[in-house]
Amino acid sequence: MINKLITKTLPLFPKSFVYLFAKKYIAGATLEEAVKVCKLLEAKGACTTIDTLGEFVNSKQQATKETKMSFAVLDAIKENSLNSYLSIKPTSLGLEIDIHFAYSNIKRIVSKAKEMGLFVRLDMENTPYTSKTLDIYKKLRDEQFDNVGFVIQAYLKRSMDDIKSMSKFTPSTRLCKGIYNESPSLAYKDREKIRDNYKELLNYMFENGYYTCIATHDDLLLNYAENLIKEKKISKDKYEFQMLLGVTESLRAKLIANGHKVRVYTPYGIDWYGYSIRRLNENPQMAGHIVKSIFTRK
Fold it and tell me: What number is the average pLDDT over the span 74-80?
């Protein structure tokens, strides 16, 4: 209860104070800092995906700037030989402005990545953009871009229909629970129902040959996934686990020790505020741990 109260009141505090809570979840303000974090994670046996923080951009000028920042991430991955790829938020590239403008920006990014032998993941945002994001993915695949993937959110009631609609592509899909605040008419609110839907989606993806990115910190779902991999004898080149920077690091280490590929979502940038508030709302016990550490330092 106290942890939830802390996260609810955080927006009332100065951003400099909130940063004390947020810095665990972000790689830094600059791309150079993100590269350093990626190298440290690789030394621990993980691989990464880099995301330039920023979303819901409402000017073409800013979306063009965000596109150039994505180009810079691709260059940094290549130049530093990182075991990494790029994650992008379609609204940061103009999806809220015009889908054709956004598609043009995204296609330029994916095209550059393909020339470099790199992969791009379309992050999934809230429901006003779900269909548009999936339509962009389909169009890219129809134009022969095979170096792109997307995200499915298990809390959305539509997700099984969405994932089935992608079967002809046998896509690379990140499966997560989802954290945006959606209407009960669109999303499951009960934790067990979300877990059950996650399991159903995971089974479908394995059974249909998708490259499956198991993105969760839920130890029950992690155990379920590990058992399912053994039961179905899923090849290591058909799946990976994915986790957020700064969250359940002991579980990450355990998965790596068990021989699984683990990728860490590594966001960076000056637009860290909205992302961090969502992370803390999703994981309120972290706020309590951080407050305790602040007031017990010697």
Answer: 98
pLDDT tens column, 204-219: 999 999 999 999 999 9
For 278-292, b where at least 16 C-beta lie within 10 A, e where not — what string? ebbeebbebbeebee
Please count the CA atoms within 13 angstroms of the CA of 30 that sit on its side-chain side.
3
- How far is residue 284's CA from residue 63's CA, in Å, rounded to a whole number? 32
Nearest-angstrom CA–CA distance, 95 and 133: 8
DSSP assignment of 144-172, as one string?
A: T--SEEEEEETTBTTHHHHHHTTGGG--E
Average pLDDT across the chain, whole number: 89
- As a whole number of angstroms, the distance between CA 47 and CA 38 comes to 7
* Active-site residue list: 123, 174
Lowest pLDDT segment from 20-34, 64-78, 170-184: 20-34
- Rg over CA atoms, the chain: 19
How far does Cα 221 stand from its chain's mean position? 17
**Residue 244, beta-bridge partner list:** 265
Specify the pLDDT at position 55.
Answer: 73
Residue 264 CA to residue 272 CA, distance in Å, equals 17
Residue labelled with tokens 């046998």:
170
Cα 108 from chain centre: 21
Question: Encoding tokens for residue 11?
Answer: 């927006």
Q: Encode pLDDT of 247-263 as tens digits.
A: 899 999 999 999 999 99
Strands (E), 181-252: 211-215, 239-244
Distance CA 251, CA 249 (A): 5
Enumerate domains of the chain plus CATH numbers. 1-22+279-290 (no CATH), 27-271 (3.20.20.220)
Position 180 scores a pLDDT of: 86
